[in-house]
């Protein structure tokens, strides 16, 4: 029996893309203290290790708000993103906060409006998916697409 016949689950065609940073829409605020710490780390490393997790319809940032903010501060023109189909059952959203009930609709609304959620409100879980590291030199992200 071939390997493809034994595979129980289909391969998901989600992958890393390089997109213009102005397309991205954050849905959460950031913590200034952590932002500055991450800024120093990324500048020292001269590399962005992890892509942003982004839904593929509106380009809302689901995870990586601080990385996004650092890239904006540095003047990056593009960002590496792991685009996902947010309607998929493989994507789940919870809240880090006990006083919040976060749904995908709440996240989308926050991303499409000025009503951003507080820092560390949403927690996204990808079932059966791993987001690969990208390790892209910062200089590559400063170039126009």
Task: Describe it.
Helix 2 packs across helix 3. This protein is 28% helix and 25% strand. The chain has a 5-stranded mixed sheet with strand order 1-6-4-5-2, sandwiched between helices. The protein has a two-stranded antiparallel ribbon with strand order 3-9. The N terminus is likely disordered. The protein is globular, with a radius of gyration of 16 Å. The N and C termini lie far apart (44 Å). The chain is α/β, with parallel strands linked by helices and 145 residues long. It has one domain: Conserved hypothetical protein from pyrococcus furiosus pfu- 392566-001, ParB domain, CATH 3.90.1530.10.
List the secondary-structure elements in sequence, H or E: HEEHEEEHEEHEEH
* The CATH fourth-level homologous superfamily: Conserved hypothetical protein from pyrococcus furiosus pfu- 392566-001, ParB domain
Q: What is the highest CATH level, the class? A: Alpha Beta
pLDDT average, as an integer? Answer: 89
Q: What does the main sheet amount to?
A: 5 strands, mixed
Q: Low-confidence stretches at least 5 residues in length (pLDDT < 50)?
A: 1-12
Spatial ordering of strands, largest sheet: 1-6-4-5-2
Fraction of residues in β-strands: 15-25%
In whole angstroms, the N-to-C terminal distance is 44 Å
Percent of residues in helices comes to 25-40%
CATH architecture name: Alpha-Beta Complex
Beta strand count: 9
Shape: globular
Q: List the quaternary state of the chains.
A: single chain
Number of helices: 5
Pairing-aware structural class of the strands and helices?
Answer: alpha/beta
> What is the CATH fold-level name?
Conserved hypothetical protein from pyrococcus furiosus pfu- 392566-001, ParB domain
Count of individual domains: 1
């Amino acid at each position: 029996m071939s390997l493809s016949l034994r595979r129980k689950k289909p391969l998901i065609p989600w992958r890393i893309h390089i997109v213009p940073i102005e397309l991205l829409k954050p849905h959460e605020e950031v913590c200034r203290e952590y932002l500055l710490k991450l800024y120093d780390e990324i500048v020292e490393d001269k590399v962005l290790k992890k892509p942003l997790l982004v839904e593929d319809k509106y380009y809302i940032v689901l995870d990586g708000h601080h990385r996004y903010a650092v890239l904006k501060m540095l003047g990056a023109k593009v960002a590496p993103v792991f685009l996902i189909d947010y309607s998929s059952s493989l994507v789940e959203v919870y809240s880090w906060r006990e006083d919040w009930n976060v749904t995908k609709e709440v996240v989308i609304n926050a991303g499409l409006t000025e009503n951003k959620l507080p820092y560390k409100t949403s927690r996204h879980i990808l079932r059966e998916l791993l987001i690969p590291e990208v390790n892209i030199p910062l200089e590559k992200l400063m170039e126009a697409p």
